[in-house]
Input
Amino acid sequence: MEAKERMKIPRQKMPEQDPKARGKNFDEVPYGYDEETAVMEAQRCLKCKKPPCVEGCPVEIDIPGFISCIENKDFDGAIRKIKETNGLPAVCGRVCPQEDQCEIKCVVGKKGSPVSIGRLERFAADYERNNGKVFIPEIPKSTGKKIAVVGSGPAGLTAAGDLRLMGHDVTVMEALHKEGGVLVYGIPEFRLPKAIVKAEVDYLAKLGVKFVSNYIVGKTKTVDELLDEYDAVFLGTGAGLPLFLNIPGENLIGVYSANEYLTRSNLMKAYLFPEYDTPIVRGKNVAVFGGGNVAMDSARTALRLGADNSYIIYRRSKVEMPARNEEIHHAEEEGINFQLLTNPVRFIGDDQGRVKAVECLRMELGEPDDSGRRRPIPIKGSEFEIEIDTAVVAIGNSPNPLVPATTPGLDTSKWGTIIADEETGLTSREGVFAGGDIVTGAATVILAMGAGKKAARAIHDYVMKK
Output
């Protein structure tokens, strides 16, 4: 097919649940492409000789290669091509911000809509899983080297898979009772079904990666004790320590961190109560503070738990919101009430110590600050109250200090992140590597995976030279 013909094909829409129906259930919102639609979308790819899309992919997927397989209906070939560099394709196809990475560099997107790279990746991964055709590559002869991976989030899982494919003995230590890190405790079922995460973890287990849950490094064993047993340690413990607003009334009953709120619902299955015995507050008027994906997840979760009003309260405008456009769009469709240019100043409680309202100020935007976004400035005399019975603070997370605090000589920044080389993940301690949110602070799944991939290469070089 000629390039001109390919350029004429419109971007294929992803079918999804009706907004009115999905606001009352936790089923996944998009349904995914069928075979015919996937092939049609794949035909939009120009097969660039020097594909810029690959440059935008932190895990270096051969994007034109796998899309070409889909166009030729070689769906088995497509997923094998993806898995040459990415062990979590079903996850990436759902939650990675392709619009800011591979798709933003797509040549087709210069004159129209870019190729739906993420949706095609999801299609290939789902085709493999749904048809029971999971391909297990041959593992090289054992190197005799043992690697400990601390944390089973995106960075840890990626590092573990890559290291196993290099022939190393890999054990992943997870503090919680289920593997997946933020993929299982942070992202809701309607955006990333937990069965998908389990399937990705199971794939790594079939490669020979060992998993140990309820294992808290820093408590169960220290990093130094792991180094006595393993040739190298990779730290991918994420950013699980929630940040708060630090305003009056934040200790009132009914004020949650997004971390606790989403962990209860996602990992602990509180949304299925009483089938699962984890309680969760089912507020009728819920305010979520923040403008990122976690805030969208929290507000949309509140709606599904039965809220009459679910608010997003954000101190800047919609343009400055860090959440993906798709997540904002889905939230708007579902009826989330956006209170923009609005800043909370105090929570108000009743005589039982429960939150009953939040006092806010209207804001206006001034000059850009260090983040590049316009700075919000309070408008004097604009105070007003919103009646609420539940508040969820979703303004970010910082790294848990447990591992750095129990590892002498491990350098950290003033923000508590572990200082590590950007290209290798090497820390100030010999044999200790780190990557993902524990190094960068809270960021995206795909950037954590990219860090895990870089660290795996460096760990391989390190242990083979020992």
In short: The first helix runs from residue 3 to 8. The first strand starts at residue 146 and ends at 150. Residues 42 and 53 are 14 Å apart (CA to CA).
